[in-house]
Amino acid sequence: MRVTKGAQIVVGTALLALAVAACGGGGGDTSGAGSSAGAGAAGAVRVEIAEPQHDLIPGNTTETSGAEVLNALFVGLVDYDADKKPYNRVAESIESPDSKMWTIKLKGTYKWHNGEPVVAQNFVDSWNFTANGANAQEGNYFFGSIAGYDEMNPGEGKTPTATTLSGLKVVDDTTFTVELKNPFSGFPTMLGYTAFYPLPKAAFESEGKLKADFGSNPIGNGPFKMSKPWKRGSDQTIATVRNDDFSEGKAKIEAVDFKIYTDLNTAFNDLRAGNLDIMDQLPAEAISTAKQEFGDRYIEQPSSGIGYIGFPIKNGGDYAKNKDIRKAISMAIDRKTITETVFSGTRVPADDFISPVVSGYRQGACGEACTYDPAKAKALFEQAGGAKAGAIEIGYNADGGHKEWIEAVANNLRTNLGAEVTPKPVEKFATILDDLGAKKWPGAFRMAWIMDYPSPENYLRPIFGSGASSNYSGYSSKEFDDLLTQGDSAKTIEEGVQSYQKADDLLLDELPYIPVYFYQTNGAFSTHVKNVKIDPFERIDLFNVEKA
């Protein structure tokens, strides 16, 4: 999965004036890059990110900032073209006679940054490490379709009976096989995702055990390599240099510095001053004037992201547990005004859990639950006991520019439901993710999802599947899980869409999350660079960026 930290917003409207007045301002957006600790090479292209949640380990990176760095350091079996179709990269072929037993052959031309060849064993070692529940990797759940996963992850209180996936077999240096528990026609489509990157032999200190310092100075197989170790929590630049031995050729720039910010306004001021080169999302008032200010250096295009308000339906308050209260909250949100006014028309009101950029999306699928109707919303809220359920707290990360739209939502709920609502800013997105993962977050929360791979299944299973690592709501339904398995077992992704849509319908009824808006990419770059492209996964194509 890939949760995303950011939102682009425009302030100063009457709607926001009401929202800010109602909740008295509330901050957390005061700090910026702040320090040159870990600064990289002179002349490096500088890219804005938030602080990654974890060290730089592919199987433990499920948010956009860490993934941006890993996308420069690693390449996987497949990647995705401009039409979001997978194409082979490290893989020579990925074939199966029955969608259950897969044979993967490598091209054999890729090398690690230490000069060793990338071999089949590197993928098997990496996947076994991430799939081992004892290693507590965020990407663990993505290996749940492979035979032997259940033995490695038997559930809480039970003892694992295996430390490797029985479904993985190395045939030779350029070939390995993958046996799935059930047929899954979309399996090759998944394999460009971060969790499926390989790991070199040098990453491990012993069989199945990663070196403690690998995540601060990872050895990859991609177009850039680390120029120095990065210390998470103190260093505010992740410094990389070009890998001149990359098998696909040399990148056009010599170095990339990923600069960590806790405030998008600070980053934007650095961009305007020429102290930062690329932002894939812009803050506050920037969007309404950015096209005029940056001209052909402004990027506006569809994104695969969806913005939500989520609820911990298993361990939250009464309003989080009651689906009718959640529906009332959804009906009380004025999506049209928020997207047009707060976001200056650069968002689209969300009406499905599946994004319009992939097959399976249905316009208006959410129906009444996502239709703004204050009168019906209040009646349902009162009938469901919402007025007695207590205050509603909505947490959000202050490092992603969410303050204004969350406060606008809070104002909607106060005005339309008579509810007591408190927005709760948290400095770093990583903090919210950690608390959600530990089931310590009691209130509602802002969340977003960028697709990992182009399939409707990716908007369903990783976020709402039983036991999924990104299932922060705690939603669990055997019917939902079974429908996903039916969709997987179809001969093609297109044939499986009906089953995925039925699973989607269950979510639209239960609303563990409330879809609020579909994202759009709004980025910009400095006069120091050119040929900057951002894909629907919100990844910057750093290999082809050039100095201007």
TrEMBL record:
Q: Which UniProt keywords apply?
A: Signal
- According to the record, the signal peptide region is 1-22
- Residue ranges of the Solute-binding protein family domain? 85-470
Q: Which Pfam families match?
A: SBP_bac_5 (PF00496)
Q: Does the keyword Signal apply?
A: yes
In terms of CDD domains, this protein maps to: PBP2_NikA_DppA_OppA_like (cd00995)
In its keyword annotation, does this UniProt entry include Ribonucleoprotein?
A: no
Q: Which InterPro entries match?
A: Peptide/Ni-bd, SBP_5, SBP_5_dom
Its name, as the record gives it, is ABC transporter substrate-binding protein
